[in-house]
Specification:
This protein has helices at residues 10-20, 29-35, 45-82, 90-107, 113-146. The chain is an all-alpha fold and 155 residues long. Helix 3 packs antiparallel against helix 4 (90-107). It starts with 9 loop residues before the first helix and ends in a 9-residue tail after the last helix.
Length: 155
Amino acid sequence: MSIDPNETHDDDDVLVASFTAQLEQVTDAEQAIAAMDAPRVPTGGRVEDWAKPTIAKVTTWRDVLRTWTPALAGTVVFLILLFSPAPMTGPLIVYAIGWMAFGLWTSLGRPGIRDSAALVARRAVAVWGLLTTAWAAISRLLHRRAEPKPRPATA
């Protein structure tokens, strides 16, 4: 079976027949375009106006869940291994951290080596800053408590 481009189809005949009444006295292409009716674009009306924001929210939440599920799953695996009754050995800790890192890496869109290194470096600097701030606050609290209270003066 071959397809002949010169062969007319019933659909083409129906389409041409629907425009013949409008285009009988037209001799120029510009006149033909001007004589044609404006196309009708079907809309959903009130139902579409009501449902469109809801559909957009559902799509947004679905995308968020689809994007961050690997990170959440890796973190859950890490927490299960961290709080399990089994003893935490060095290889098990590395394995759990690897699962968590892989989930985050997947959720961030599997960045390349350069982007991954930049992300890790930025997060490491941020975590280091938070840890040093927390350590400074804790050490200040400990030093305040360690100072002896002044004794009342005796005469």
